Amino acid sequence: MPGKLKVKIVAGRHLPVMDRASDLTDAFVEVKFGNTTFKTDVYPKSLNPQWNSEWFKFEVDDEELQDEPLQITVLDHDTYSANDAIGKVYIDIDPLLYSEAATVISGWFPIYDTIHGIRGEINVVVKVDLFNDLNRFRQSSCGVKFFCTTSIPKCYRAVIIHGFVEELVVNEDPEYQWIDRIRTPRASNEARQRLISLMSGELQRKIGLKVLEMRGNAVVGYLQCFDLEGESGLVVRAIGTACTLDKLSNTSAFLPACNSPSKEMKEIPFNEDPNPNTYSSGPSTPLKNQTYSFSPSKSYSRQSSSSDTDLSLTPKTGMGSGSAGKEGGPFKTLLRQQTQSALEQREFPFFTLTTFPPGFLVHVGGVVSARSVKLLDRIHNPDEPETRDAWWAEIRQEIKSHAKALGCHAVVGYSESTSICEEVCILSASGTAAVLNPRFLQDGTMEGCLEQRIEEASPPGCGFCHIPYDELNMPFPAHLTYCYNCRKQKVPDVLFTTIDLPVEAIVVGKGCLIQARLCRLKKKAQAEANATSISNLLPFMEYEVHTQLMNKLKLRGMNALFGLRIQITVGENMLMGLASATGVYLAALPTPGGIQIAGKTPNDGTYEQHISHMQKKINDTIAKNKELYEINPPELPEEIIGSPIPEPRQRSRLLRSQSESSDEVTELDLSHGKKDAFVLEIDDTDAMEDVHSLLTDVPPPSGFYSCNTEIMPGINNWTPEIQMFTAVRVSRLSNINPTNQTLNKNFNDLCENLLKSLYFKLRSMVPCCLCHVNFTVALPEDELVQIAVTAVAITYDKNQALQANKAPTEKSQQRASTDNEEQLQFPLELCSDPLSAQPFSPAKEVLEGASSHSGIPAAQRVLKSHSGSWFRAGTSPEIATSLEKASPLAEGYLRHRSVPSCTNSTVSVVKMTPLSFLPGAKITKYLGIINMFFIRETTSLREEGGVSGFLHAFIAEVFAMVRAHVAALGGNAVVSYIMKQCVFMENPNKNQAQCLINVSGDAVIFVRESELEMLPVQPSTAAPQPTSSAGDVTT
Amino acid sequence: MSGDTEDTGETLGTRGDIWGHCGDIWGHRAAPAAGMSSDLDVFVGNTTLIDEEVYRLWLDGHSVAEAVARRLRGGVLEREGTSVAVLQSDTRDHYRTFQMLERLLHVPPRLLQQLLFQIPPERQALLVQRYYAFDEALARELLGKKLSKGTKKELDEVSARTGVGIRSCRRQFDNFKRVFKAVEELRGPLAENIQQLFLLPPPLARDYAAIVFFANSRFETGKRRLQFLSFADFAACAQSMMGHWSQGALAPEAAEPDGDLPKSFLQDLKELKVLVTDKDLLDQHKSLVCSALRGKISVYNELEASFKALSRALVNVGGKLTHARDVRDFFVDLVEKVIEPCRSDKWSPGDLRLFLTHYTAAPRNLPGFRHQALWERYMAAITACLLRMYHD
Q1: Residue-wise burial string across A39-63, b where 16 or more C-beta atoms lie within 10 A, e elsewhere
Q2: Helix axes B84-105, B52-59, angle to 10 degrees
Q3: CA of A972 to nearest chain B CA: how many angstroms apart?
Q4: A379 touches chain B (CB under 8 A)
Q5: What is the 3 state secondary structure string of A115-138?
Q6: By the CB < 8 Å criterion, does A590 face chain B?
Q7: What ipTM was reported for this prediction?
Q8: Would you call A113 helix, strand, or coil by DSSP?
Q9: Structure pTM?
Q10: Does B97 lie at the interface with A, CB-CB under 8 angstroms?
Q11: Which residues of B touch A948 (CB under 8 A)?
Q12: Which of A127, A878, B128, B194 could pair with B205 in a Cys bridge, judged by C-beta atoms 3.0 to 4.6 Å apart?
């Protein structure tokens, strides 16, 4: 019995009137955990009851602690009839189960009812006493930390990144057709909420077990989703990246062992896949035999219906015995071998991370994706997870082979999704094929031995752009050129990825949100016929989405996409595709050529004229966009002649070893030309429409930028003001005879209008940037399209931006960076005192080695970014320790502050953001993940303000419940917040509607940087208090 | 199960209140919306967006369509380069937010405690202040009226007279009534109670205290001869009366609510009649005042002539306050019997002030008059009222 859960019910407030006669309520509370229930006394005749209960103690094992939520039900006592439920609170106690997170959950929680929404609040205190029980055969995984954040959390350091973990659990859906129900809607909603909560807990525990097996202690990039399959069941599945994290205060913990590299020299077969593709592989297994004979190698039987694709992933220690690293061997091969050996033993070398520690990402191959169409009513044994496991295993296998075809051993920025319509389900997976630095992947291997050379081979500013595949044996046709940054390696002409822009990447100008939108009609059909027609459509959709993305990218004069997410949604009679990504201009890649239009009937004069008119429009748009996004890559020849500004010259002294050979220049000139201009052939009206639609995308109004990645390339002076929001729109594509064209246009308009509307709403925040713009599309019914957007608007300081731009070297090229304070710090230091870069001699050496054939400006950039990152590497432990010292203080200080605010009964502010950081603030502690699932239903839709009123209230309630839970954990923000699902159904004739929302994120404590600076100086004085509370209050 | 039947009842009960008001506002939209499409369109921020302009329009009782039209006229389109559809969607979002907030605005402390909307404190204060701010013209119309359903039905006329939109009139009326109900039974200073319960800024709370005071005592304010008095005049009078006469003014832990004038005090006022009923006292009082004012006042002759009438009026007004029916005439009497005669005799405000000062002070020297403290307490408020009311 390794745990004791203690719960105290303190008080309630603002309860609804349950007794019409007295206008009062006789409330009491039931506290349930597992199968044990306690009750408080009835507090008669009050809307603000003070129960002040004893401590209710539950003695439970930790497996139960992980799976079960704490259920608190507030009821109205009724002497003569059944007690009426007022509402419930579900509390996930997981954050209390690991030592570093929260120690107590205490605060006001909204009392939630699935029919009435929030009905008052209840004050609860929850504690857990864990007994240390080192049972080897335990089923629990207490202590494994979970993070939704898809990067290494800010106050941790990754010792090892183990790799992919996944799990899937299945259960019967307590209510899959809500309209045809027999029991009360409340009962079935609650059954469903409870079940999903339970399944989430179980899933998390099982994933935790896998992590422990791999000897990790955390899951980063944890993404849990549920699939409402309907009759065949309810699936909760999750993926994540197992890591061993080290709290940054622990400076002593890590002792790298210089193991020798693996002896295995297996060469990777490149052309395994006959028809690979950089950006997307078509639906490779359209409708495979449904009785797929997957034989799970499960011999042990846990009574639970868990999935186990049985990954014995634990890296075997001592695997790298043998000869030491071969000095003479070509580096790339060596690296590949080592990475391979590190990854080979993993069934799926996938990483759900999108941002990586410096040096982790060596090369990026491109986007790999796989989709497959399945029929849910053909699942052999729907209550067991095997079939779904097999489906996903199949898709992952495919992703893996695509990555291999790109010369990569790993897939980063990996994610999975489904789209379900009736009995058809599209499973999708996508990620970015990459070559990784093995030193992070297992215990100490390579550390020290190869570190230097890895850096050498891939200058961080451009290294990831260099092709990982064999130039002579390319998996797909592509124009390769020498890297514009280092001149040493080949790079592709465009690069698509699903990851965030690497911090060290050298970017020209600013980035922008690019979307491809597409509708395809499909005949209504049943079962296999339906699945076949869907899988036939998929490759065309993928192709068109890619074409649109490519065109729009070129139209903006950019050459790379980050954060690419292609969503294909299936409906009754159509498929919709929505791809979002952030376009940037990578300095390492060639300047994109323009778009050229070619007509098919060259002899027609007016047609010719029309074409040339269009061509002009396109050219104008490109020029305008270049100006808008400040894309003015350095004019190479001019720079080589020599810049008149003395300062860069001075710095060039450090980089003496560049060759300024003229043949290099001529080669550059060649690739500069229009030779690789993109030609659009207009051979029919469809194509014409496409070109038109290209030009309809309106740039955001001035003062606004938008991106779907964590950070906006080219903006780094964020102010602390943020506004996270969710917008949902449902629109009817009401055409009597819809065609693909009209649907496309409608869909396009819908998205554009939604964006316009966002810009208008947030106009008071200008200048600002919408970051992490996340669109999700659903087709709830015939002709109905639902779009949900979650994003965060962050203001930035325009004046500072201008100043930064004025600095000559900053003019066109800027490093992307998440840490703005560092961003500000390093260039300044570098500029003011070039010698300050000296102590970091590795940087210089690397530079000299790496950029011996490059042009000056590029090299300058390298120095800057490079030494910047070195600088960071060097100082971060110090920063971290000082931060760590400050943090308990900061926490106490926060707590202290929150006490009076509680007595004043004002609500503490909780920030929410989809990003992993808060501008101008330091995250001092991660308190655990928030993973919440709510159902709301109404039978009085009109009275609640119609569908909009209903959903508006519900989303506000969801936010409120998330904030309350975070505040109760002692936190003041949620980072990496995501609304994973928003399923809305309505039946206006019956005046009914129902909505399901699933959200998650990481609860954290942050401290404003301004406060942080104050803390060590005057730790005991109360002086900073007023300022800090004021700061707290402003947002 | 019992749950289901109870549900619908509950739903209609509480939700009806919440959305009852919005029925009006959305009414015009409901019909086309049902036929056309479901048109769901919401925007929810973690920090609740409050657009002051739209809040104003909502408070003024404009429908969404009217609000959009007004915003268009304001030139938003040109400034922001957006479309009418965007403006409509934005306005609807704000209206929904305000309607959800309205329930909380009825109990402002709950707005501070609630968890549903994250609103910075200064924004919360703004929401409350604007919600409880009222049109003085409307308040003037309603002063002294019973805040009943009957009065609410007459709001159409009031709206027509004052030019305040009917929806806004109803909202403001409901505010008056809500504040009235909330403090009716409470002890202690009225304005402070209101300030605490509704988190209003002190001046606004004082105005509400006046409204409650008037509604409680049902003073007549609608007579033609009182039309020259503004809401601010009456509010100032109410404040003086409460300040000097209420029990709270003497003992903070008073037994009776502040809005009611203490019965014992009103009863005691009858004792003052001796000043006008006793011929000797009246004469002595007159000579004391006249000798003090001789040469200091421009209307000395008029004063001498009208002293007895004025004194009778001033004393009798107080004596009548024990009868609820006569209380109603308090201001009418003051105007009819004091202000109008003085005005026709061309007293300047300074004359009146001087007169009242000496008139109040003089009885101290009257032999056999033992109610000086009571007299001064009574006259303090009367003086303040008269001086405030003495204008054109």
Answers
A1: ebebbeeebebebebeebebebbbb
A2: 70
A3: 13
A4: no
A5: CCEEEEEEEEEEEEEECCCCCCCC
A6: no
A7: 0.84
A8: strand
A9: 0.80
A10: yes
A11: 39-42, 92, 96
A12: B194
